[in-house]
Structures are given as structure tokens and as C-alpha cells.
Amino acid sequence: MTHEVTLITGDGVGPELAEAARRCIDATGVAIQWDVQEAGVDVMARTGTPLPDSLMASVRRTRCALKAPITTPVGTGFRSVNVFLRQELGLFACVRPCKYYPGVRTFFASVPVDLVIVRENTEDLYAGIEFPRGHLETAEVIDAINRLCSGRKIQTGREETGVSIKPISVSGTQRIVRFAFQYARQNGRHKVTAVHKANIMKHTDGLFLEVARQVAQEFPDIQFEDRIVDNMCMQLVQKPDLYDVLVLPNLYGDIVSDLAAGLIGGLGVAPGANIGPDGAIFEAVHGSAPKYKGLNKVNPTALILSGVLMLRHLGELEAADRLEAAVAAVIAEGRQVTYDLKPHRDDPTAVGTREMAEAICQRLVG
Ligand code: NAD
């Protein structure tokens, strides 16, 4: 069976990484028909938008994309091109596996970190409901809050106060927590930990926790527990091996997933997926690293491992396992790896993006 996949080449280091990841995925032997689509600052200079209609149409058709990083151009009307894509395509779940591969440089090399962060993508302070300081609407919002709120009021001046709203719903929480449990079940995982600040934000995080507890009852085969987010951060640094799948509202998910990426060696090795009922986009956690553009320098691992997640999503489990094993073997050997995986960043034996991808392909076919 041939899978049709949109390949979003991005900008900055994106095109080099997209090419490297595509070569490795093709080397697994899985038949993929790539629909290559440009995005970002380069295509914007020609077409006036960083996200051409043809790209959106392609992802809607294929329902599956591998996406290299995209710079959010300043002054386009997009708060973030990446957030826009997720919202427009209804990709409500962000999945970020954080697994340690021997050979990667990290302070936590002695701990077998193998976490999956499931972040809600559509609600919370990231919903974009914001009121700037000094605007008329902001003053109205502050007045309304002070009139309606039975608890504490906003006591600072209307002209000096900005307001961001944090909506969290029953349906949004049910959807993400069910997703986390289903992911755990399908991927042989044993425990889901809900992360929140319910002791302080009782009507948003408290609701998240209440709904998470209800949903957990639908999955008696998977353990459930919860942690307050500050305690969670400390525990992840002290004993990350105690945790398995974490499910979090949007903002904590953003922060904790970077913390977890730090545990396993940083941005160069952290893959991700954004998944919704009508499709999925697989992408590295890192951005377009513009200063390295065209230098054949940065680490392709994060996007290649995003490709591993994509192969699993497409049902190509055996090919996914082979590709992951090839990546792990090249990293463990430590010879044909990029500068960030060497003991010193200026190590003259470091290879480029292309060469590391080539070494992974050789492992696959050799
Ligand atoms: P960045 O992730 O692009 O780069 C920060 C630093 O991390 C780099 O300078 C580099 O030292 C290191 N790094 C990143 N990727 C690496 C790799 N593959 N190998 C080795 N080292 C790597 O973050 P930034 O500079 O804050 O963002 C640049 C642009 O990317 C911004 O416009 C931002 O909006 C965008 N961005 C896009 C995405 C996405 O497409 N999903 C995600 C984050 C940021």
C-alpha cells in the first residue's frame, strides 16, 4: 500500500532536515508518495503568505504531514504560523515522546528516561483570548470581572493592566485525557499522570483534574495518578524514571515538554506529533534555527524520530522500529553524528546533517 504524505519543507534549516528525514523514511522501504509543499519566509516573499492555500489543501487531503520547522515571519498577522496550523486543522493533541538514547550528551545519562508528554493544544492561556493594557475593551473586561467576581477583584488600574483568559472545558479535557489513555494502551504503557495546579486554579485546573479522574475510570487497565505542576517539575528532575505518560493542559504541557526534552539531551533529539480527528502533523520540537541555514550542520534526529512516530501512525510498525533502531545505533556509535552529539561542540570529527542521515540509511539497508 502506498501512503500519501505532505512534506512541508519549512524554512531556515527546514529544507535540509526535510530532505534528510525523507531519505531515511524512504530507506525503510515503506512506499510513500510525498506531496512536497513549501512554507515559511521564503515562500512568503513570493506569494505573500507563509502558508499557501495549496499547502492547507494538501494536508486536508492526505491527512498526514511531515513538517520541517517554519519561522513565524514578523508582521504577517500570524501570532504563530505553527499554532495557526494546529488550530486550523483541529490538531488537539500534541504528543512528545522524550526517550534517552545512549550516546546523547545529557546530565541524566544514567537514568533510563522514557516519557511521553501529551499536551492539550487548543484551550488554556494559549487560546489567544487576550486584552492589551490600555485598550477600551480591556477596561470593560476588568469592570465586568470586578462586577461579576464573587472572590478577589482586579485591583490594579484599568490603564496599567493586561488580561489573558484561561478557558478549560469538560469536552476539551475529556478529549485529551481519553487520547492519553488510548495512546498508553496502544503503545504498551502502564500509567497516566495528570498534571495541574488544581489547588490554586480550582475552576480550570480543578475541572481538568475532576474530568481526568472520571475518564480514568474508563481505563481500569492503566494506572492513574495526578501531580501538581511545580512538584512534577522537581520530580522529573529527581526521578524521571517513575513516570510514563503525562497529560497536561496547554501551557504546562509547553513548559514541561521542554523540561523533558532537556532531560534527554535537548532540542536536537526531541520529536513531536500534533494529532486530531482529521489528520496529523509530525514535527521536531525545535524551530528553524535560522543562523544555521544552508550550513549542513544541525542534527536531523528530531525530525527523523518524528518520522518514526509518523510511520507508527500509518500502521508501519515494523519499519518504524527499524528506523528508530538505526537512529539509536548511529548515535550510540557516536562517529557519524552532528556537532551537538559529540563530546565537544567544536569536535572536528562531527559530520553534517546529510552525512548523519546517510549513516542512518546505511544502517537500515546494511
Ligand atoms: P530554534 O529551535 O530554531 O533554535 C534555538 C537553538 O537551538 C539553535 O540556535 C541551535 O543552537 C539549537 N538547535 C535547534 N535545532 C537544532 C538541531 N536540529 N540540531 C542542533 N541544534 C539545534 O529556536 P528559535 O531560535 O527560538 O526559533 C527560530 C524560529 O523558529 C522562530 O521564528 C520560531 O517561531 C520558529 N519555531 C518554529 C517551530 C516549529 O516550526 N514547530 C518551533 C519552535 C520555533
Series of secondary-structure elements, N-terminal to C-terminal = EHEHHEHEEEHEHEHEHEHEEHHH
Count of discrete alpha- or pi-helical segments spanning 4 or more residues: 12
Portion of residues within helices = 40-55%
Biggest pleated-sheet summary: 10 strands, mixed
Count the E strands: 12
How would you describe this structure to a colleague?
The chain has 366 residues and is an alpha/beta fold. 40% of the residues lie in helices and 17% in strands. The chain has helices at 14-27, 41-47, 53-62, 81-88, 136-148, 170-186, 205-216, 229-238, 250-263, 301-313, 317-333, 353-365, and strands at residues 3-8, 32-37, 64-67, 93-99, 114-120, 130-131, 163-164, 191-196, 223-228, 245-248, 271-276, 279-284. The strands form two sheets. The chain has a ten-stranded mixed sheet with strand order 2-1-3-12-11-4-5-10-8-9, with helices on both faces. Strands 6-7 form a two-stranded antiparallel sheet. Strand 1, helix 1 (14-27) and strand 2 (32-37) form a beta-alpha-beta unit. The two termini are 24 Å apart. The model has no long low-confidence stretch (mean pLDDT 94). Bound molecules: nicotinamide-adenine-dinucleotide (NAD). The site of nicotinamide-adenine-dinucleotide has 18 residues, from loops. Nicotinamide-adenine-dinucleotide is lined by residues 69-72, 82, 267-268, 283, 286-291, 298-299, 302, 340.
Summarize the structure.
The chain has 366 residues and is of the alpha/beta class. Helix content is 40%, strand content 17%.
